[in-house]
Amino acid sequence: MQTFFNNKTAIVTGASRGIGREIALKLGQLGASVVVNYVNNVQQADNVVAEITNMGGQAIAVKADMRRVNEIETLFENAIGKFGTLDILINNAGTVIYKKIEDVTEEEFDNIFACNVKGLFFACQLAAKKMAEGGKIINISSSVTKVMMPTYGAYAETKGAVEQITKVLAKELGHKRIAVNTISPGPVDTELFRQGKSDEQIQSLADMAAFGRIGTPRDIADAVAILVSGEAGWISGQNLCANGGFIA
Known about the structure:
The protein has 248 residues and is α/β, with parallel strands linked by helices. The chain has one domain: NAD(P)-binding Rossmann-like Domain (Rossmann fold), CATH 3.40.50.720. It is 46% helix and 12% strand. The longest helix has 25 residues, at 106-130. The mean pLDDT is 96.
């Protein structure tokens, strides 16, 4: 698998921590040149870059707020300007709110859709124009689109949109042999996931999985590596639920 990633360039959005960080490290380990996108914490992004370069790989950190199209354009310009090509796009950046639908404000609604849908949509649009033939796009969704979980309404709405974008884009980019897929994690042990949850709530979610635990960011990074590899070239327009049997 590793030789497939040589001379490939990957953009990973929201890559300074959590799932995005592990995806960036995994792709760097496999030999891809990695563009580590961040919006706030330059130190964490630089740490990811340092880890990749210490493994013998190539990486740069690029600040871009994925809610702003001009900054997404700058992200792509930096990636292609530095490495000459774009072969892999991992749309991971996003946010979450835990509120009943009746309590979500207009500002909160607009922000979560801007983070989770608008940014991904316009990153996909740029990839459609600039990505090399045979490229790979992975959009990160969530297994909450398949379960009825109170307080996840706004978040689940955004991820449902992500899944539909993936299906349409896979058809639109098939002529360029660009594979577009979704990965839907279940509960994953990240700072974002633990926000506002008690240990009892986390254990309850772990008990719902077939493996009796919540996932790790590396579990998701490994799934991404499989879908962007050469061996997965015939897979497009699909949603891989990487959730340890949390939900079918």
